[in-house]
């Protein structure tokens, strides 16, 4: 959850893993046919549960100068609407990459709707969400899922698209 420390995730079908062929990088590759799937506190064989995949996500550090994130949108994955993110947090940081595992490195800039309240269909863009009143520029961003549409063994999405601008 926002402000907490991060733990690394690895490929697998056990607690704390992502599906081996669906890594975090898939959420940022521009390919609607790939997807990121994380089990979180569940495993690939767990009973379906609302908490599976919650408190998971990723962070990314850009090679460009820090920028202000103003909008984002999420693309749903190929199947199972119950896996869709419902609410998320977004945090930013300008700390060194080695410090990004620490919650104190992050500043919360968004806590709310993922833009998928109404199911847009499969491999489809959700509603573009605007980050109001954000004037802070960051080199790194952390996205965490705080709830999903229904009960399943994981959370999945195809893309997380970020729209930003450089400071004036």
From TrEMBL:
Highest taxon of the lineage: Eukaryota
InterPro entries xref list: Galactose-bd-like_sf (IPR008979)
This protein's name: Uncharacterized protein
